[in-house]
Specification:
Elements: E1 47-50, E2 53-56, H1 78-81, E3 88-94, E4 100-106, E5 109-115, H2 122-139, E6 150-156, E7 160-166, H3 173-177, H4 180-183, H5 188-208, E8 213-214, E9 223-225, E10 231-233, E11 240-241, H6 260-263, H7 272-287, H8 293-298, H9 301-309, H10 323-332, H11 343-359, H12 417-420, E12 427-432, E13 439-445, E14 448-454, H13 461-478, E15 489-495, E16 499-505, H14 512-516, H15 519-522, H16 527-547, E17 552-553, E18 562-564, E19 570-572, E20 579-580, H17 599-602, H18 611-626, H19 632-637, H20 640-649, H21 662-671, H22 682-698
Antiparallel strand pairs: 1-2, 3-4, 4-5, 5-7, 6-7, 8-11, 9-10, 12-13, 13-14, 14-16, 15-16, 17-20, 18-19
Length: 700
């Protein structure tokens, strides 16, 4: 509970308002809790920067122009947790990467005080304010011996919002591990297992709350210690209630400790992200090292993120790590959150490990090398660390008898094996990802992140045959392609369990459709910047494909087949229905989705050319412009035959927004011409888009 002084009763039932400033500038210890910032002695009428505004100090009067609207979220907690500023003494600053932190005392008790650094920019102050309000709100819900005790808060003009918590004399676990002399005294049988149990206890408690409280930033630097090495979790600035009414924010915490689903933009997650981070903390306890220091110095943030997301990069354990700890770490670091144990189960496993370590001499024996890597996967090890490879057991089928496949179906791919075959032993499947096209896994090949497409062998024989044909077509088409705006084909393999598997580069930005479906992200896109750039990228891919001999026709161009890098570089994918254009054979009609299909592609028996891709690209431009999937309302109210007829006859066309630039409107109209001979060629479309880019960027 909060600490209340005898004078608090005059404040607790009032709204949060600016305190009166008696004798400001002349008496720095006056009773309103206000004193000027250190080193500042304002004269009457002199401006002083305070929390998010400039106020005028006038003796005996309240500061003018002050607004406490920023802190309305804390009003319900004021009665219990408000601390009079006059009861707080600030003694000295404490080094911290998180806000401004000071050591002080409250009515004689040592405390840690977090507040704003008001010398920062308004943007940074607003961010800090939001985090500190979040921390206070979260900590008012918590009471546990392994979580740093929250004492209360106050608000003053010179410090802004201040949060008081108990002072831990042992500093952070990271500080301890960074001290070689002290760290060398720690053992798994004693201090390390005890610290691990303490933090697991804190997480288990938080995850038992309703709603569940997710920390989202568990790491050694957020674990405080007493002088007797009792560990307590701190740093709740990024903590979040888990509710199912809103989408959880991604990209919080430090990437080295972040679960894969926390790194993926728009990916939902649960409290299992804390279990993953705790697994990384166990590697810190074991090795003493901050994870991925070497990689952070030699790789870009995007490369590290991609390797973490695909499981190609994992923190390492020491050769001396006890086998019982190795097993727990491996389970916590499962790529699929559903395969990680719950925090209460982790706590139970750690208590069992403690008994093993303290009672059985063999319990402290290092784990065998084969326990640390996926069967059939080769790893290079250094002199002091072991790789933590955590495979995801992705089954080929679910339920019923196990179904296998045969290479006899794929003999037409035989000529491609010499150049594109990938040894199945070099492939690690990390986890399944949602996809409307076959089955798709995230994985890595010799450390390179990849996307793996393969057959769903639990389907009917008819569906499997259709998927075989499409996947072989995709592989055959992609072996011909090498362009910066087409997803890179890496190779293929076959196993009886998974059937034919196609490996392509992994694009961390997901699909253009995924981006457009995210209102917050889509609102930031503009035609002069991202939209025209994405359009040019895909037009470049189509111009390249249509320049090949024979011409390669995609036949299914749409936003969901356009993948993005984290820098919004667009690449065309989805070549399952791609087809060479030859004049010796009749082209198949009725492929692709009707909303994006050219009229001649919808008409049975109608011949067509690569101009069907130009039409589909015109529809994609409308997606870029409006953000919407075309004809959603019509699909809900009209039957397929009627909709097909309207599209084929030109009486139905996708809409553009009133704000669409005129230069884009002209290009869309030309691409959507009913007569394919009137549509521009893809290279001409590319040329027009580049001209439009110049025009858009020159406009004020």
């Amino acid at each position: 509970m909060g600490i209340c002084s005898s004078t608090e009763s005059t404040h607790v039932h009032q709204p949060i308002v600016a305190p009166v400033v008696p004798g400001a500038g002349t008496n720095s210890t006056g009773t309103g809790g206000y004193k000027p910032p250190q080193g500042v002695t304002p004269a009457p009428g002199r401006p002083v920067k305070a929390d998010s505004r400039v106020i005028t100090i006038v003796p005996g009067r309240a500061p003018e122009g002050m607004s406490w609207a920023h802190y309305e979220a804390l009003e319900p907690f004021k009665e219990t947790y408000w601390i009079n500023a006059e009861d707080v003494t600030r003694i000295r600053s404490v080094n911290s990467n998180y806000m401004k932190t000071e050591m002080g005392n409250l009515n004689g008790h040592p405390v840690l005080i977090k507040s704003f650094d008001l010398t920062k920019s308004d943007e940074e102050i607003n961010k800090t304010r939001k985090m500190l309000i979040s921390e206070i709100t979260s900590m008012t819900r918590i009471s546990h011996p392994n979580i740093v005790k929250f004492l209360g808060f106050n608000i003053t003009p010179d410090y802004g919002l201040s949060c008081m918590s108990e002072y831990m004399d042992g500093k952070t676990l990271r500080h301890l591990l960074d001290n070689p002399r002290q760290a060398s005294k720690l053992t798994w049988a004693n201090e390390k297992i005890s610290i691990a149990i303490d933090i697991a206890s804190a997480l288990s408690y938080m995850h038992s709350l309703r709603p569940v409280l997710i920390h989202r930033n568990v790491k050694a630097a957020k674990i405080l210690l007493t002088s007797k090495k009792t560990a307590k979790l701190s740093g709740f600035g990024a903590a979040r209630d888990r509710t199912f009414e809103y989408e959880m924010t991604t990209g919080v915490g430090d990437m080295q400790w972040s679960a894969p689903e926390l790194l993926l933009d728009g990916e939902d997650y649960t409290e299992q992200v804390d279990v993953y981070s705790f697994g990384v903390v166990l590697t810190e306890l074991d090795t003493g090292a901050v994870p991925f220091v070497e990689e952070m110095a030699t790789m870009t943030k995007a490369d590290i993120t991609m390797k973490l997301v695909t499981g190609a990069l994992r923190p390492k354990l020491s050769p001396e790590c006890p086998a019982c700890i190795v097993r727990i770490v491996k389970q916590c670091l499962q790529q699929d959150p559903l395969l990680r144990p719950r925090s209460d189960k982790v706590l139970e496993m750690l208590k069992q490990a403690q008994q093993t370590l303290q009672q059985e001499p063999m319990g402290n024996k290092p784990g065998k090398p084969e326990e640390l890597s996926h069967s059939g996967t080769r790893h290079a090890t250094d002199s002091g660390r072991r790789p933590m490879t955590v495979p995801h057991p992705v089954p080929a089928s679910h339920g019923g008898p196990k179904v296998t496949d045969s290479w006899d179906y794929y003999t037409e791919l035989e000529p491609l094996k010499a150049q594109f075959w990938i040894d199945p032993e070099d492939v690690i499947r990390v986890r399944s990802i949602p996809c409307n096209y076959m089955k798709t896994d995230l994985g890595n090949v010799n450390g390179q992140p990849v996307l793996i497409k393969y057959l769903d062998l639990s389907k009917s024989e008819s569906d499997i045959n259709k998927s075989r044909k499409m996947l072989m077509s995709e592989i055959s088409s992609m072996t011909r392609i090498d362009h910066t705006n087409v997803v890179k084909f890496l190779g293929f393999n076959f196993t009886p369990e998974f059937g034919l598997c196609c490996m392509t580069e992994y694009m961390e930005g997901k699909t253009l459709r995924h981006l457009l479906d995210n209102p917050h992200a889509a609102a930031k896109l503009s035609w002069p910047a991202e939209k025209i750039s994405i359009a040019i990228d895909i037009a470049s891919a189509l111009a390249y494909m249509h320049s090949l001999k024979p011409v390669l026709i995609h036949r299914n161009v749409k936003a969901s087949k356009i993948l993005l890098s984290n820098k919004k570089i667009a690449k065309l994918s989805g070549f399952g229905v791609a087809r060479d254009r030859t004049f010796e054979m009749e082209m198949t009609t009725g492929v692709g989705d009707m909303q994006w299909s050219a009229p001649e592609l919808l008409l049975d028996g109608e011949d067509y050319t690569e101009q069907v891709d130009v039409y589909s690209f015109g529809v994609v431009l409308t997606e870029l412009d409006t953000g919407a999937v075309p004809f959603v309302e019509e699909m809900a109210t009209m039957n397929k035959a009627e909709l097909t007829m309207k599209l084929a006859t030109g009486s139905l066309r996708p809409q553009l927004s009133p704000e669409c630039p005129a230069c884009i409107v002209r290009i869309v109209k030309q691409c959507l011409q009913q007569d394919p001979h009137l549509r521009p060629r893809s290279d001409k479309v590319l040329e027009m888009l580049k001209q439009a880019q110049v025009e858009l960027q020159e406009q004020p």
